[in-house]
Every structure is written in structure tokens, then in C-alpha cells.
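A reminder from the course coordinator: this example appears on the midterm review sheet, so study it carefully.

Given structure:
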């Protein structure tokens, strides 16, 4: 990948690696709750609705509301420092989660995790766009996004083992403390790049308010359809992913250690492969037609649809795992290309805020509503149909999330016109 030629943008690959590790910590701390929710549910006597609120809506609300002002600071200040502080906060609050004595305590701790994690992605996205040329941002953003699945891998693997061996409280401590320590490593090794290094004619000192960024984005139809498509992919990912351990525990009689190991390999490895492959494919095909940055996620969602339905309906655990691997690869192609194309639609000084807007939509709908509505549906279906109620709830969420196919298609129809408008503004 070609990199920016300026004094501060040294070692861009190291910077990308460090930011990816931070993102992995983000999802270790986020997903640890998912693998631990069955023993927590039994210990505290919680409903699936409460679990969905805990891992979804309440977390997402703080996450997205804090993301906007943090992105405002990131478009103006030192992005590295913001990320390091954020990492310290969310990792520390993860460790504190192990001290919770009731549902309220745990909810407050998870709100703290959400507050910290809000400072991770927008400044990271902005830095990566300054480290890498536009034609390589899809791969760079996708490599960064593999941090999601690296985090899921370690979160599931460690969480399952730690829960069985040491209990769920100690599991929070073990996964939280390393993130606090890594924040110091980040301060020593990560360098701040020059803003707009790859954008000819860009004003390196330009600043944009939230209102200015939002006003600019309002004229970019492709951004909104792509953002909604990303949100619906996230909806089915969180709606099903957050309850997949419970699904395997209740309907396939797997232990937490077995579930953790299985999902670590399936979701972690397959998810990382799919995410990185999405950027590689989008960059290659997008070099000839930018619409492939949206069509790649669209075709991934199309292929994933029947596979995901099969996962939820089959009674054979082995075939379930095979189908889950394939559906995970194809349904994770979307994130890197969508982030890259959203940055291509705005000037450099609006990128962190644009990421914040994108992640506001993505996380409010996906992370916020996905687990919550799936939990509500699970309680409702379970009251009528018993333990299989969770299957019906997850199936409903998966089908609804697949509406992303239509949204990505519409976004692609508007993309070239939106890109041409931005280019015309740069020429003025």
C-alpha cells in the first residue's frame, strides 16, 4: 500500500497495526459480555430483554451520543491522545464490571465502556485516511476492521474458558487490564499524521462543525443509503451475534468453553477473512467503477441470506458450524468499503465527524436495536413456544437485517453523481 510522504506520517503500517490492536481491545471488551451473559443471567435472574438492553441499547446510546463531540475534537486536536484516553476508560470500566453486585451496577459499568469506546473509531478512521492514498483506503480500512473479529476471537475464546474456570467476574478483570497497559504503548509508538496529506488542494487547517458536516452530507444521497445499509447489516450481526452463544447453549447443548472456542474460530477467523477480503475486492473492482465499494457489500449480503437462515433452522450442529463460517465470511464484506467510500464523499477535515455520523446510525440501529428487539422477541416467542422461541426471534432479526441488499443497491445508483459533485467543488 502506498503511503503519505510527509515527516509525521512515518511507519504508516505500524500505525495501522497499532490502531487495529486498539480496535481488537474494543471488541474484546464489548463481546466479553456476550459469552458471559448466560452465567450472568442465571446469577442475577435476568430476562433476555434485560440482556439485550445491557449489551445493546443502553451501551449504544452512550456510545453514539459521545461519538459526536469526540469526533468534533478529533477533527481539531491530537487524535492519538484521544484514542489512548478512550482505551484507558473503556478497558478500566470492563475490569470494574467484575465488581457488579446487581443489574444496575453492571448496567452503569457497561455505560462507562460505551463512553470510552466512543473515542476509538472516528479518530482512527481519520488517521488512516491521512496515512493511506484513496486507492488503498479500502484495504487499509478493512485491515483495521479485522480488529472487530480479532477481538471477537479472543473475547469468545478467553471468555468461555475463564467463565468455566474462574467465573464471570474474574473474566472481566482478566480482559480489561491489558487494554489499560496498551494505552501507554500507543502513546509511545503512534504518530499523528498531517491532515489531508493525499488530498490535492485541501486546506490542512480547515475545521468543520457538526452542523457544517451534516449540512454537507445532506446533499450526498449515497451516504445515507450506504449508512442505512451498513446499519441493517450491523442490526442482523448484533441481533444474532449477541444471542448466538445463548442459541448454541440452549438449543444445541454446548458448554460455554465449547461455544467460546467454536465462535472464536468461526466468528473471529471467518469474520476477519471476510472483512479484509471486502476491502481487497472493493479496491480492485472499484478502481474501474467506484460503485463496487457498495456492490461488494450488496453481493455479500445476497449470498449470506440463505446461509444465515440455514444456520438458524438446522438441527445438525456440525452443518450449522460450516454454514456459519460461510455466512460470516460473506456477511462481513461491507464495513471497510463503506467506511472508505464515506470518506471519499467528504473533504478531509470532515472525515472524523463523518465517521461519527456513520457510526451513530450504524450503532443506534445495529448495536442499539438489534440485541434489544431480538431479546424482546425471544421473551415473547419463548412464552408461547418454549426454548425454540430464541430461534424464531433470531430468524426475524436476520431477515429484517437483509434489507441492506436493497439499500446498498440504491446507494450505488447515487454514488457517481455524489462523487462528481465533490470533485467539482475541489476544482472551484
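Designed residues:
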Amino acid at each position: 500500500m502506498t503511503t503519505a510522504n510527509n515527516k509525521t506520517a512515518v511507519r504508516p503500517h505500524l500505525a495501522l497495526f497499532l490502531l487495529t490492536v486498539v480496535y481488537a481491545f474494543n471488541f474484546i471488551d464489548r463481546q466479553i459480555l456476550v459469552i458471559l451473559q448466560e452465567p450472568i443471567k442465571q446469577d442475577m435472574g435476568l430476562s433476555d430483554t434485560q440482556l439485550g438492553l445491557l449489551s445493546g441499547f443502553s451501551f449504544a446510546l452512550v456510545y453514539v451520543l459521545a461519538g459526536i463531540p469526540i469526533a468534533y475534537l478529533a477533527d481539531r486536536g491530537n487524535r492519538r491522545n484521544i484514542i489512548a484516553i478512550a482505551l484507558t476508560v473503556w478497558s478500566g470500566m470492563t475490569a470494574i464490571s467484575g465488581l457488579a453486585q446487581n443489574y444496575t451496577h453492571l448496567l452503569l459499568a457497561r455505560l462507562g465502556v460505551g463512553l470510552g469506546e466512543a473515542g476509538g473509531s472516528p479518530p482512527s478512521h481519520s488517521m488512516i485516511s491521512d496515512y493511506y492514498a484513496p486507492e488503498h483506503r479500502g484495504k487499509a480500512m478493512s485491515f483495521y476492521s479485522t480488529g472487530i473479529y480479532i477481538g471477537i476471537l479472543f473475547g469468545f475464546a478467553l471468555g468461555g474458558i475463564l467463565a468455566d474456570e474462574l467465573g464471570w467476574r474474574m473474566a472481566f478483570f482478566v480482559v480489561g487490564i491489558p487494554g489499560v497497559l496498551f494505552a501507554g504503548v500507543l502513546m509511545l509508538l503512534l504518530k499523528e499524521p498531517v491532515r489531508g496529506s493525499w488530498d490535492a488542494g485541501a486546506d490542512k487547517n480547515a475545521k468543520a462543525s457538526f452542523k457544517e458536516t451534516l449540512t454537507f452530507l445532506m446533499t450526498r444521497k449515497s451516504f445515507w443509503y450506504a449508512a442505512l445499509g451498513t446499519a441493517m447489516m450491523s442490526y442482523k450481526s448484533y441481533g444474532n451475534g449477541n444471542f448466538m452463544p445463548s442459541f448454541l447453549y440452549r438449543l444445541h447443548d454446548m458448554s460455554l468453553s465449547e461455544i467460546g472456542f467454536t465462535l472464536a474460530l468461526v466468528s473471529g477467523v471467518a469474520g476477519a477473512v471476510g472483512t479484509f477480503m471486502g476491502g481487497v475486492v472493493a479496491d480492485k473492482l472499484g478502481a474501474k467503477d467506484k460503485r463496487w465499494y457498495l456492490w461488494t457489500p450488496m453481493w455479500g449480503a445476497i449470498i449470506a441470506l440463505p446461509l444465515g437462515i440455514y444456520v438458524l433452522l438446522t438441527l445438525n450442529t456440525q452443518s450449522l458450524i460450516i454454514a456459519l463460517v460461510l455466512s460470516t465470511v460473506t456477511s462481513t464484506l461491507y464495513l471497510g468499503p463503506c467506511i472508505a467510500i464515506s470518506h471519499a464523499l467528504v473533504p478531509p477535515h470532515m472525515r472524523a465527524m463523518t465517521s461519527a455520523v456513520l457510526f451513530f446510525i450504524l450503532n443506534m440501529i445495529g448495536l442499539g436495536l438489534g440485541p434489544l428487539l431480538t431479546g424482546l422477541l425471544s421473551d415473547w416467542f419463548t412464552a408461547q413456544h418454549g426454548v425454540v422461541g430464541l430461534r424464531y426471534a433470531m430468524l426475524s432479526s436476520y431477515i429484517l437485517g437483509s434489507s441492506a441488499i436493497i439499500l446498498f443497491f440504491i446507494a450505488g445508483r447515487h454514488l457517481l453523481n455524489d462523487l462528481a459533485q465533490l470533485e467539482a467543488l475541489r476544482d472551484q
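The two ends are 30 Å apart (CA to CA). DSSP finds 17 helices and no strands in the chain.
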